[in-house]
Specification:
Blueprint: E1 5-8, E2 48-51, H1 62-77, E3 81-84, H2 92-101, E4 106-110, H3 115-124, E5 129-133, E6 150-155, H4 157-171, E7 176-181, H5 186-206, E8 211-213, E9 215-216, E10 221-222, H6 232-243, E11 248-252, H7 256-267, E12 272-277, H8 280-283, E13 291-297, H9 299-311, E14 320-322, E15 329-331, H10 343-357
Parallel strand pairs: 2-3, 2-4, 4-5, 5-6, 6-14, 7-8, 7-11, 11-12, 12-13
Antiparallel strand pairs: 1-3, 9-10, 13-15
Domain ABC transporter substrate-binding protein PnrA-like: 50-363
Signal peptide: 1-25
Protein name: BMP family ABC transporter substrate-binding protein
């Protein structure tokens, strides 16, 4: 796997789309100590590294966000970084060992699928620091991370998806909205379930009967492609939702939104798309006209903060949980759809966000306290 490793001198990455680094992220420390920042002072002896899941760093979603966060942190610290891209799940162990062998001080693993390999590597290398995106690495399910040198970065996206669900119910003209995912893992279904809760809340408040297709809250199951690739399976599932009259679709699973966009364009109907993780309007302008909003994870900011802290000798394994309150999750602006969102509905979304933060509305999820 060594030929898949790319080493970049003095982090530089065009088009960084970081959420404000002034956001107050729970579990993150105070501002880092000053470093040379590349101005000729004494350089840090520190090498941050990252391994992607098989979606790759150009997925315009969580792998890309994680990578952007590491690049920005390396640039701030004035150090080099190393990344390795996985082509399949069978690459994970070898890629992690490759990074250990290169002397990486902190290794960021992107995605829950990497958790077992990350744990094995962390236990075998207690002097290396690990940052796990989207998984607590609690393989024995006792409520704590299974290695002291792993810092989990996890995100309660149900809160933000609730807002997107309420918004969708208010915008829908057919009274049917849909969602589907890559695989039925908690980090995927948390979006779908939060979305459905938002629709339910709209129905209760407005006396409406907007239907959600693609997810059954009671069964905790729904429509899944079986993977995280933009392919014909994803397009067919999206088409199935369209055939059920859905006019807003939330695909959860990295690039599978591209297949949903293709199905929407083929339909010739006015159907809105909702992105996940990044503001897809910014990361993939080719689908910008379809996007009502995106359900955001502050992965880039959380990775940036974790790496800067670790680079300055302040690695903290305390899990970070992104919420609406600490701006670790949120929803993007309505962009091209702004004129189709009634002003009173937009105001209501702001009020709902404040109510969730205040604890007046409880959004159920596996991460909720």
């Amino acid at each position: 796997m060594e030929d898949t490793v790319r080493i970049t001198k003095k982090a530089a990455f065009s088009g960084l789309a970081l959420v404000s680094t002034a956001a107050l992220l729970a579990g993150c420390g105070s501002a880092p100590e000053e470093t040379d920042g590349g101005d000729g002072g004494e350089a840090l002896d520190y090498l941050p590294c990252m391994v992607s899941d098989f979606g790759g760093f150009d997925d315009k979603s969580f792998n890309q966000l994680g990578f952007e966060g590491m690049v920005a942190a390396a640039e701030e610290l004035g150090v080099e970084y190393t990344e390795v891209e996985s082509q399949a799940e069978t690459d994970y162990n070898a890629n992690l060992q490759n990074l250990v062998d290169q002397g990486c001080n902190t290794i960021v693993t992107v995605g829950f699928a990497l958790a077992p390999a990350a744990l094995e590597s962390a236990l075998a290398n207690p002097d290396v620091e690990y940052v796990s995106i989207d998984d607590t690495v609690d393989q024995d399910f006792d409520g704590t991370t299974d290695a002291e040198n792993i810092k989990p970065l996890i995100f309660d996206t149900a809160q933000a998806a609730f807002l997107a669900g309420y918004l969708s119910a208010g915008v829908s003209q057919t009274g049917v909205v849909g969602t589907f995912g890559g695989q039925n893992f908690p980090t995927v279904s948390v979006f779908m379930d939060g979305f459905a809760q938002g629709v339910d809340y709209y129905n209760e408040e407005m006396g409406a009967d907007v239907q959600v297709v693609g997810w059954d809250r009671e069964a905790q199951d729904g429509s899944f492609t079986g993977g995280f690739e933009a392919n014909d399976t994803a397009r067919q599932i999206a088409q199935g939702l369209i055939d059920q009259n859905a006019d807003i679709i939330l695909p959860v699973g990295g690039p599978i939104y591209q297949s949903a966009a293709a199905a929407i364009r083929d339909s010739g109907r006015e159907i809105a798309l909702i992105g996940v993780d990044a503001d897809v309007y910014e990361t993939d302008p080719s689908v910008g006209d379809l996007l009502l909003t995106s359900v955001l994870k502050g992965i880039d900011v959380a990775v940036h903060e974790a790496i800067v802290e670790a680079g300055n000798g302040n690695f903290d394994p305390t899990p970070f949980v992104g919420t609406l309150e600490n701006e670790g999750v949120g929803i993007a602006s309505f962009h091209d759809w702004e004129d189709r969102v009634p002003a009173e509905l937009a105001t209501k979304i702001e009020e709902l966000q404040a109510a969730i933060i205040a604890g007046e509305i409880a959004v159920e999820s596996y991460l909720a306290e």
